[in-house]
Amino acid sequence: MTTLDGTVRLTVAQAIVRWLMSQFIEIDGLETRICGGGFGIFGHGNVPCLGEALYPVHEEMPLYRGQNEQSMGFAAAGYAKYHLRRRFMFCTASAGPGTANLLTAAALAHANRLPVLLLCGDTFLTRLPDPVLQQLEHFNNPAYGLNDAFRAVSRYWDRITHPAQILQSLPAALATMLDPADCGPAFLGLPQDVQGWAYDYPMAFFARRVHRIRRQTPDDREIAEAAVLLRGAQRPVIVAGGGVQYSGAVAELTAFAEAHQIPVVETIAGRANMLAGHPLNIGPIGATGSNSANAIAGAADVVLAVGTRLQDFTTGSWTVFAQEARLVGLNAGRHDAAKHGSTTVVGDAKLGLLALGDALMGYRAPRAWGERARTERLAWDEYVATNVAPGNRPASYAQAIGVVNAHCHERDRIVTAAGGLPAEVTANWRTLGIGTVDVEFGFSCMGYEIAGGWGARIAQVESEPERDTIVLVGDGSYLLMNSDIYSSVLTDRKLIVLVLDNGGFAVINKLQNNTGQPSFNNLIADCPTVKSPFAVDFEAHARAMGAIAKTVDNPAELETAFRLAKEADRTVVIIMKVDPHEGWTSQGHAWWEIGMPQVSANETVLAKRTEVEAGRAAQRQGI
Predict the structure, then answer these.
(1) How far is CA 266 from CA 124, 341, 542, in A?
(2) pLDDT number for residue 266
(3) Any idea of the CA torsion for 548, 553, 554, 558, to the nearest 10 degrees?
(4) Would you place residue 470 in the very low, low, confident or very high pLDDT band (cuts 50, 70, 90)?
(5) In terms of Cα–Cα distance, which of 127, 136, 96, 119 is closest to 193?
(6) Which of 45, 132, 139, 250 is deepest in the core (most CB within 10 A)?
(7) How many Å apart are CA 73 and CA 78, to the nearest integer?
């Protein structure tokens, strides 16, 4: 109801939805609604008010019904990652366990710096009906509840205690989600009574607004200082992270590397910054990287880290770079730019690379350095070609990756997470298209694969409907969270899902064995509490959720099944057993710090501890 004084009387829930509907973003000259819709499971904490507000706009702002709140959050993260953090989805859950299920997803979005808006039910502000269903009571602090747990996993957190509060809270939440440095999940706790309270909101609050992602110009003095280091480098290397893609700086990265003939290595998040065949792409770096990238990074005298938070899998727990190597951190976030004594360049990756390029005019790395890097990469390519090829050995992750790599379209999207597949995809995948690889290893979260793939597919249909989203998932992650196969069928968002069954948590079993321990409680066959082991019928299970499903015995059969899956009109699940012990990628690994027992009755464990600790000699000490 519009009033004469230029206000409109709405409930809090109605006002939130109306405001979201009026927020747009400019992307490549086109304006589109910044919120692509939402994922929701209704309960008593959100259906009476927020459900009422969402129904009238469900055609313009679709609400996807989830099967599990955690997987809804993963799907929203997959959507945001596909859109390079420029668009987001909201998730709504009821009070209590529904909201609690979103904690893991919020942590994933926080670790990966992804925008997700969480609209979650909360207990009654008046406290008149306390204690209510699913309320956690803290006897000495009645204002403290389950939703406070989200403070640690949110970039923005608020509890709406008065209708007028959203006039400040909603713009602040959106500003956080769009900020290149502070991007991450925003949480709004919505008490069940407050959701329905009405207020006379100013009409101006709902005016159409177009947002643009801020590009921070680097400081001239920081550019000059970084340029001095780089100009004096004999063996420079660029570490390209996911921030290169989020900044839209892929072309600038390539042009900068070419102009100065500096080799480029990629992080896991930055895995598709350059095509595989580019002569300056020396491969993935780190604990799950390549011999080529790690060798060049280890020999470098100056390291330009662009758009990366330098996670331990990238740095080999800070053993990949030489002790005397100088670091230059180019990042929108001061926290990331300044890590390990880096010479900081705080600013947008695109603008930063352009400014550094101008400051380095005329500089080119020595020819011998580039030739050395390319020689290393050619040797790694030969190893990968052998590693992914079927042969007289058990079926492996690498072979499955090789089949998909050989027969997918260059614009198909690859999604995986957790377990052994991130390492195997990172090491063995040859990038066919820029920005087409989503390896979730910021939080290394089991269960992201299928749900994140569903969210990515929702986004993909908006721009590239003729392409496919291909999910690679192990049997462990599949059993943890698979219900979005059903979601993909219900919503006509086709996925191709490869379930690679190695009989349990095989990569952790490998780690267990590599630290001197016997196999215990990881592979199903090695669980003392398992009395009647049997193989899961993944094919029947996937079919029960409406997918086409096929079990194959080897990579040759996988190739045939994958070709058919490409032609299918709905989600296809392909299952192949892989050996839990043989076929792992054995090359390309850097040292990775793990906690080892100082005391053990197992002599093998103690010997492995000595072996692990020996790698510490190369570890940088934070400078």
Answers:
(1) 49, 21, 35
(2) 98
(3) -10
(4) very high
(5) 127
(6) 45
(7) 9
Question: For domain 389-577, which architecture applies?
Answer: 3-Layer(aba) Sandwich (3.40)
CATH 3.40.50.1220, the chain: domain bounds: 220-379
pLDDT of residue 1: 61
Q: What was the pLDDT predicted at 248?
A: 96
CA distance 579 to 169: 52
As given in the structure block, the two tokens for residue 397 are: 């992750």
Closest C-alpha among 452, 384, 459, 469 to residue 417: 452
Residue 4: predicted pLDDT = 59
Angle between helices 166-178 and 12-21 (to 10 degrees): 40
Strand 63-65 versus strand 413-417 pairing type: unpaired
As annotated, the residues of the chain forming the CATH 3.40.50.970 domain(s) are: 7-211, 389-577
Q: What is the pLDDT of residues 394-416, one digit of tens each?
A: 999 999 999 999 999 999 999 99
The answer to whether 356 and 338 have CB atoms below 8 angstroms apart is no
Best CA proximity match to 106, nearest among 67, 154, 147: 154
The structure tokens 């599990």 sit at 68
User: In terms of pTM, does the model score above 0.85?
Assistant: yes
Q: Please say whether the beta carbons of 242 and 55 come within 8 A.
A: no
**CB under 8 Å to 473, separation ≥6 — which residues?**
416, 421, 449, 450, 497, 498, 499, 500
List, for residues 481-501, the tens digit of each pLDDT value: 999 999 999 999 999 999 999
The residues that bridge with 25 in the sheet, in sequence order, are 32, 211
Q: CATH number of 7-211: 3.40.50.2000, 3.40.50.970, 2.40.30.170, 2.40.100.10?
A: 3.40.50.970
pLDDT one-digit tens code per residue, 24-60: 999 999 999 999 999 999 999 999 999 999 999 999 9
Q: Classify domain 220-379 by CATH architecture.
A: 3-Layer(aba) Sandwich (3.40)
Structure token digits, residue 286: 């780190």
- What's the pLDDT score for residue 392? 72
Spatial separation of the C-alpha atoms in residues 519 and 532, rounded to whole Å: 18
Helix (H, G, I), strand (E, B) or coil at 380: helix
Mean model confidence pLDDT for the chain: 96
Contact (CB, 8 A) for 351 and 217: yes
